[in-house]
Amino acid sequence: MDGPRVTIWNEFRHEREPGPAADVYPGGIHRHLADALAEAGIPARTAVLDDPDQGLGADDLARTDVLVWWGHRHHAAVSDEAVARVTARVLDGMGLVALHSSHFSKPFLALMGTSGRLSWRVAGERERIWCVDPGHPVAAGVETPFVIEAEEMYGEPFDVPPPDDLVFVSWFQGGEVFRSGCGWRRGRGRVFYFRPGHETFRAYHHPQVRRVIANAVRWAMPAAPGPWPCGRRSDPAEPLAR
Ligand code: ZN
Fold this sequence. Notes:
This protein is of the alpha/beta class. It has a domain of 150 residues: Rossmann fold (3-Layer(aba) Sandwich), CATH 3.40.50. 22% of the residues lie in helices and 28% in strands. It is built from six helices and nine strands. It has a nine-stranded mixed sheet. It is globular. The site of zinc ion has 5 residues, from loops.
């Protein structure tokens, strides 16, 4: 069976400026995520905000089974037309794996229908990530708990709909907790949100983080390709009583 056709989309503006993000993720976060997926045997193409059609043209999305998204400062720059294409593809079966500050990305918010708000603090503190559903495919082979020594804190309440699947919960050194690994079904598609990945820390170098992202891509792969028998006039399956 063919593997998922994966596109990793990244804003890729911050890492082009000299500074800590460029030092931690030279070449861009998307390249490091692509390396992580390649290690797991999942080839991926990459796309960035400054590509033609913002990397989200109809052709780009038509050849994408799972879209991995990272963005933070330029959510508003993503065109509403591109967002409509992404959300339509998810409802039609494409998987979306939204990472870190993508909780404020337009496609994630459109699919959630909530504000996506949370509390945060950039202090480089310890994050301890606990698996609360060890049998879930996204947790396969992942140590629990695992520790990221320095990360941005995200704290509850996280304004999202109750997840269909809650897989990971984070504890932070400062005391907060957060639902850091959540899955939802939207139409025929699956959405997974995974919290770590502030651009000036090293989460995407962490082997456990990389494993979770690869698992999430596999979990989000479309399950049932082909036409969906809904949205049409229905003939009775049995004769109707008169
Ligand atoms: Zn951040």
